[in-house]
Amino acid sequence: MFNKVLIANRGEIALRVIRTCKEMGIKTVAVYSKADAESLHVKFADEAVCIGPAPSAESYLKIPNIIAAAEITNADAIHPGYGFLSENAKFSKICDEHKIKFIGASSEMIDQMGDKATAKATMKAAGVPTIPGSDGLIDDFAACKKLAKKVGYPVMLKATAGGGGKGMRAVWSPDDLQKAWDSARQEAKAAFGNDGMYMEKLIEEPRHIEIQIVGDSYGKACHLSERDCSIQRRHQKLVEETPSPFMTDALRKKMGAAAVKAAKFIKYEGAGTVEFLVDKHRNFYFMEMNTRIQVEHPITEQVIDYDLIAEQIKVAAGMKISGKNYFPKMHAIECRINAEDPYNGFRPAPGMIRTLHTPGGHGVRLDTHVYSGYVIPPHYDSMIAKLITTAQTREEAINKMRRALDEFFIEGINTTIPFHRQLMDHPAFVAGNYTTKFMEDFEIDPKK
Questions:
Q1: 76, 171, 234, 447: which is deepest, by most CB within 10 A?
Q2: 223 and 269: one domain?
Q3: Burial of 166 (0-12, 13-18, 19+ CB in 10 A)
Q4: Which of 207, 227, 292, 394 is catalytic?
């Protein structure tokens, strides 16, 4: 087992990893930017190293600074959390070259699954259902036009290096194709430095359902069932739940088997997520694979009583997994609490938290790094907390979430708490009848 783990991240996920490391008897090193000097992950780690100024490019994305921090503190492993460098093949490789264990996928696995076009080709070879579309990248607009006609409208153009909805365009008719092609490529080039595009059939009334998987270095892989992530805005998830209200036992077994097949095909090591789009007829198609821990991992932990961070660390240390698949015993819902103004287009709202009162009670979990007096910096993602409720049934989990949200007070900044409270009363959500298009029609009531 590792003696000391450096956490190459910030905020709640850094604190989450620190907690598990302490429970496992492992020393921890926090890294932080100057903007995060007062963050809780800095206070609770055994050691802390400042790695640069506030901008991510000069701190949390600065590989030489992180490696230097690991070497001067004698850390023998690095946990990247999610975001930042968690799916950076170069970082994984550099860690390996410096004899520091990267607690995550190898550079080869990240290369194989990180690029969406390559990942799709890999999954087709593995026999996992994929969305009809291009085989690899599209050469030019003429090829794009020909393929769209073959696949049949509507189609979705996607940037191969995309993320967060950038470089994606839905196209409903041939008349709109040229404009979509040009704008998607320009956006992808500006955001990622790569304007490579591929095309897929647009799945109508889709659900975004992902399967949590774990693989070890001995060729074993298992799944830990599904999470429904369909409530999202601009391709950013807002609420997740498990089990999915759309799932059947038969579909769960089929999707779980497909995810395990994918993991075994690439000899996947670590915790990862195979993400699928599921249409209204419950046909499912591989979308992408995240070779890291997910923001929404706590709901899986809650329903099967399983510490995913501990499992990541054990696998990275060379331990075997049982290979047993897990199925949810309870129901859990996660609301992402962001420092955003839901009454004004979810505009980011950094600033000082003057007052904080957090919810508690049976079946309520709160993962956060903020406190009264904490100043939320404007430089990073706006998520400041994850509120998770767990109960025997979905109805009970929703009722518990309503109560927990009513107890959650944050003064000094705007947050998404009012949005989540209204969502918990929305008839379509309560009925479990929602798709990834749900937020297009949702309007928050300013009077509530």
A1: 171
A2: yes
A3: middle
A4: 292
